[in-house]
Fold this protein.
Amino acid sequence: MTTAPTRRPNIPLPGWPACAAAFRRSSGRCRGAAVVASGLSYMRQLSGNLAAGMIAAGGADLAGFGRQAFAYPSFAADLLESGRLDPKKCCISCGKCSALMRAGSVAGCVVRDTETYLPYYRRDVGRVLKKAEENPHPKKEWAR
């Protein structure tokens, strides 16, 4: 007799429980220092709920929203007014804003504000990618 494989629960971001636990541990060990929960944008429209829960439970003192602020500049006002975020405006965690920053460009959301940031992305990130293609092994050059 064969048995069906056990299905794991569908957790969209399986690392978040461990991350939240790390914030809680830090909060308990860092007396007098503010603990800022970060990476919340990955939870998209649930990020405000997660932040509120972490602060209420004493796991963090503040909530940091970097990518979410680029993608959805009015997210804080929407949370205060309606208590929820519009999923169509939330950060999708694509990493293009980080690629802009790593390329030394202006930072912003390429997906939600394409007219403004796509030209920078094409120019600056494209330049970095082209350079990487031209020299795929930069460490070999440094060793010379």
